[in-house]
Amino acid sequence: MEKLYKLLSDAQASLFVLFHKTWVYHWNVVGKDFQQLHTLFGEQYNTMFEEIDRLSEHMRYLNVKPLSSLKRVLEVSYIEEASSSANDQSMIADLLKSNQDLCEKLGDISEEAEEQKSYATANLVQDLMESHGKFIWMLRSFSSTPGIKVNESIQEQEEVIEEVEETIEELEAE
């Protein structure tokens, strides 16, 4: 069960960082799709706030203490903090990749939970995967690279993000 507890703790930290990143982007988004993105990011961070609480309370049910130190949260999160210089397309690409990474890790937790016969845990993380799958779909709809799929490798995702950033730089230079 220790492996499952560690996976849950890392997911809780990562979900918190993704929540914060989405909230920061909600405040700072600008551009032609400002209103739609501001609303979308707001809806997503509100959903994540409830998810963090649900996951943390489930961890307490399992007798696992959720992380409470921001320093520790940042140490174990596999989601990076928000970029302070991101434009709207960079924000979308970053949130898209972060949600994909979270879904991948939640899938690992689901498999481990099933193996440990912790079916409530498996059900919870599957609910989270469904929620973030919807976020991926919505972000992909705004993306200038809508063909990104949930299970692409991280390297492929990073290449797409680099291409998006290069395209944005070229457009801004014109």
Give structural notes.
This protein has six helices and no strands. Helix 1 packs across helix 3 (70-76), helix 2 packs antiparallel against helix 5 (119-142) and helix 4 packs antiparallel against helix 5 (119-142). The chain has one domain (2-173): Up-down Bundle (Ferritin). The protein is elongated, with a radius of gyration of 16 Å. The chain has helices at residues 2-28, 34-61, 70-76, 88-115, 119-142, 154-173. It is mainly α.
According to DSSP, the number of beta strands is: 0
CATH superfamily: Ferritin, core subunit, four-helix bundle
Give the total of domains. 1
CATH class: Mainly Alpha
List the helices and strands and how they pair.
Layout: H1 2-28, H2 34-61, H3 70-76, H4 88-115, H5 119-142, H6 154-173
Helix pairs in contact: 1-2, 1-3, 1-4, 2-5, 4-5, 4-6
Could you provide a short overview of the structure?
Helices cover 77% and strands 0% of the residues.
Keywords:
174 residues, mainly alpha, Ferritin, 6 helices, elongated
